[in-house]
Amino acid sequence: MAIKLSSPLTIVFLILVIQETILFSARADMQFIENICKSTPSYDLCIKTVLADPKSKDADLTDLALIVVNALKELGINDINYIKGLENDHPELKVPLDYCADVYNTVVTTDVPLAVTALTQGNPKFGEDGVADAAVEGQACEDTFGQYGHASPMTDVNKNMEDLANVARAMIRMLL
Fold first, then answer.
1. Which residue of 30, 89, 123, 146 has the lowest C-beta tally within 10 Å?
2. Region of residue 89 (left: phi > 0; alpha: psi -120 to 50; beta: else)
3. What is the DSSP letter of 118?
4. Which of 71, 25, 62 minimizes the C-alpha distance to 176?
């Protein structure tokens, strides 16, 4: 017995079934993301970062970790630009700011690419090493100001890098 698709009732029924299937799938994806983010040190930061990327909709754990790792790169680039602005306004901080620019450059050019390569090649341990280093770099930047007798103008910036790196690290550890 064939279903007659020209019937308005049949068409409405099919549309409702398709909508329900899509809604169920979206709820399942969101539940997965929430469960992953609950296992990180910063649920809110994790959710905010992951949901900012449209690719999170159909992502598995590796894809979610890559989203956060790529967000680390964006944050590092923003931090380098912030440092350049501080150098113009605070020439007395040149030495620690130059050091911070170097460590954030390391995050962008070495740590993040290492993590991305490791994750895409199925070797999460090396990915964890890359993001762990990004957290250390943020703390190293913060500490250098005290070594030169200055208060850090980058405390929030450095904390953001450390927090996001720790979210990425927690996600990657779930892959081990």
1. 89
2. alpha
3. H
4. 62
Cα–Cα distance measured from residue 36 to residue 19, given in angstroms and rounded to the nearest whole number: 26
Enclosing H/E stretch for 47: helix 43-51
Tokens of 68: 């956060």
**Residue bearing the bigger pLDDT, 76 or 16:** 76
- Burial of 130 (C-beta count, 10 Å sphere; 0-12/13-18/19+): buried
- Residue 129: φ, ψ to 5°: -60, -40
Torsion of CA 63, 46, 159, 74, to 10 degrees: 40
Span 112-168, pLDDT tens digits: 999 999 999 999 999 999 999 999 999 999 999 999 999 999 999 999 999 999 999
- Distance (Å, rounded) from C-alpha 115 to C-alpha 131? 7
pLDDT for residue 23: 39
Q: Is 61 helix (H, G, I), strand (E, B) or coil?
A: helix
Burial of 12 (0-12, 13-18, 19+ CB in 10 A): exposed
Residue type, 13: F
Among the listed residues 81, 89, 126, the one whose alpha carbon sits nearest the alpha carbon of residue 108:
81
